[in-house]
Amino acid sequence: SLIVYFLSFSSKGAAGIVLSLISLLVALAGGIIAISLFLGKSAFEPLLKKKISYNVLSSIEPKSGNAEKTLLITSSYDSKYGSGLKMPKKALFWILAVSICSFPLFLLFALLRAAVGISTTASLASFIVIPLAICVPSAVMLIFIVSLSKSKVEENNSLSTAIALATARYLIDENKIPENTRVAVASFAADKAGHDGVKAFCDLHEGGLLSNAVVLHIGDIVRGSYYVAKFDVPSRRDFDSSLISTVMEKGAELGIDIKECEEKFGAVDGFAIGEFAKRGIPAVSFFCDELSPFAEIDETLQEDINTTVQKAFKLSRETALAMLYSDAKESNYEG
Questions:
Q1: pLDDT tens digits, one per residue of 158-203
Q2: CA–CA separation, 239 vs 212, rounded Å?
Q3: pLDDT per residue over 306-316, tens digit each?
C-alpha cells in the first residue's frame, strides 16, 4: 500500500489519483483483515495457511449412572507471539501504539492525495515527506515487533496445564467427586489465534460433554498479581458473577490477594472462556500475569515461582470443590 501510494506521485493526473485510491483501499482491507483475525473472527480465516493443532481431553466418568453434571477444568498450552526486538514491555507497547496510530494518518494522506491532488511543490513535499518520515518507519517497526518465528515466541511454561491436572488428581485421590458427576480436564491449542481451539472444542462437545457443564479455566501462571477475568472484550459480555465471587471468596480464605480484571486494553483479544460464555455455559478464569504494559513489578517483593504455583493450585483446588458442591445437599466436602 505504501509503495503504491508513493508511485502515485509519478503522475499528477487521473492515474495518480487512481493509484492513491488503490493504496487507500489496500490499506483499509489489510487493516480490517488483521483486526478481524486478531479478534478471532472467522470471516477471513480461509486466507490463512492451514495448520493442525490438537486439543487434549481426559475425563473421569461416574462409577455408576450417567453424568448429571460436568466440571471441566481447562488450560491452554500454546505459546504467545514473540518479538524481534529485545526491549522492555513498556517500550514495545509505545512502539506498537505509535505504529498503529500512524495507520489512520496514512489513510488520511491517501484520501487527501486523491481528493485534493498536487497543485504546488509545497503540497507535493507534504504528501511525500510526512508519510515517509512517520508511516514508513512505523510499518517497518510493526513488522519486527511481532514475530511468528519459533525462535522468537514466548514459550508456554505449561504451569496452568500442570495445575489443572494436579487439581483433577487431587479430586480423585481424595474422593471428592460427587456421584453422577464427571470431571474432565482439557488443554486447548490455538488460544493465541483467536481462541480457535476453544471454538473447535465447543463445536465438537456442545450438547454432549458440555451439557450441564461448568468451566474452571486456569490462565497463564507467570508473575505479578492474581486476577479473575470479569469481562470479554470481543463478545462485549460479562462473565458469570457468581463464579467470579466464588474465586474471590476462595482467594480471600487462602490469603491470596486476587482482583477482578478491569484491564480492557491488555485483554482486547478476549479470554479463552469467552466462547463458553457466548454459548451460555457458566465459566470462570483466573490467572497470574500482568496484562498492562505499564504494570510495575517490584523485583524485591516478587514471590518466587514455586510460591506462585502453590497458591494457584490451592486456589484452583478450592474453587473446583466449591463448583462441584455448589448445589449438593449432602457432600463429603469440608472445605
A1: 889 999 999 999 999 999 999 889 999 999 987 666 678 888 899 9
A2: 17
A3: 888 899 999 99
| CB contact at 8 A, 166 and 313 | yes
Q: Scan for cell 457466548, then name that residue.
A: 278
Q: What is the pTM of this model?
A: 0.73
Catalogue the E-assigned strands of 130-263.
Answer: 181-188, 213-221, 226-229, 231-232, 237-238, 258-261
Sheet holding 226-229, edge to edge: 56-60, 181-188, 69-76, 213-221, 283-288, 226-229, 258-261
Tell me what pLDDT residue 329 has.
36
* Residues contacting residue 79 through CB under 8 Å, at least 6 positions apart: 153, 154, 155, 156, 192
Residue 284, strand partner residues: 216
In this structure, the strands spanning 181-188 and 231-232 are unpaired
